[in-house]
Structures are given as structure tokens and as C-alpha cells.
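pinned: reference chain
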Amino acid sequence: MIKEIVEKYQNEKGFSLVELLITMIILVIFLAGILFLFEFGLTSAKILQTRSVLNTKISIAMEKMLRQIRCANKFKVPVVTEGMAANPIMFTADVRGDGVNRDVMFYRTTADNPLGDNLLCTCEREEREPPNELEWTDSELAKYLTVLTFEYYDSTGESLGNEITEDNRTLIRNVEISITARRTLGSKVIEITKTGTVTIRSSLSYLIKERNINV
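pinned: its C-alpha cells
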């Protein structure tokens, strides 16, 4: 009886080395596929989150600029200083609704500006303490901001160019803003562009008067 049992197990064959190797290869491929899907899911989620954050930040910045430019009653020729990118916008407006016109400017700085990451700013040029509430920067958006441009149009819709000059500043009735932010995640480039147009609604009679008397 014992002899028959021993002979039975001796005649049975186990897995060969080739079969084990094939099994291991299949297992490795299966696990690699799972890891790839997991990593792809995490990357996709991060891309969507980044795109959403950039879109939100651009929207907030755009709304701030549109709201204040809408109140403009006089455009000024801005002086582009060292470290400031071209195409800034400068104007006076009663942005607080208290009847006081204050200077406001939006601009983007260059990468070598000592201001660092504060690339998107609006400044009320009024020296007083505490610092005025209209000054704001968005360093998070600034890290990825690649474009901030302004285009100007007259009342007929004709373009006045992308710079405020002494010749066109009293003709401006509409301003178009373009903002582009770009961020790189590995080999993936995420870019968001948003444009907005605002019609000047404040003190148009003041603008016309200013143009007629050539102030």
C-alpha cells in the first residue's frame, strides 16, 4: 500500500522552470498595468485640479480688472519702468464710489524684476497709511502668468492699438483684456487663456470735455 502511494507521487510532474517564468512574467505585466492605471488616474486628477485652480485665479483677476476699468474716467500714458513688462494700463477712477478719483494701474513684471513673483498688480498711487486696500498681488497666479495684455477700442469698435498714447487716450471706450497662465507638470503643459471686454461707463462727458480742450 505504501509502495503504491510512493510510486503514484513519484510519477506526478510539478511545474517546470519555463512554466514558472511564464507565470511570473504574466504576473509582472498584470501588476505593471495596474500601477500604470493608478498613476494615470493620479496624474489626470492633478491636471484637472491644476487647470481648475488656474482657471479660478484667472477669473478672479479678470473680474477685479474689469470691475475697476469699467469705472475709468481718464486714461493716462503709463511709464514702463525697469522690470515692468510692456503694455500696462493706467487710469483714474472712482473705484470706491466716494467721489474721489484715484490712479490705478495694472501691469505684469518681467522675470528678473526684484519684486519677485508679484507679476500681476494694481496700484493706487496715493501715499497714505495704512497701505490702501486697492493694492493687490497674486503671487500664486504670478508664478505661471505668461500673458497680460490690453487692447483698446473707440466708440465705433475700431482698434486703437495695445498701448495708451496721448493721441488715443481720450478715445478709449472699450478695453479687451487677455490673460494666459501656463504650468508644466512633468511632460504635460497646462495652459489656460481667458479674455474679457469692458465698456467704460463713468464720466464720458468728462472724457469728451477733456479731448476738446486738449488737456
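why pinned: Confidence is low (pLDDT under 50) at residues 114-119, 124-134, 204-215. The longest strand covers residues 174-185.
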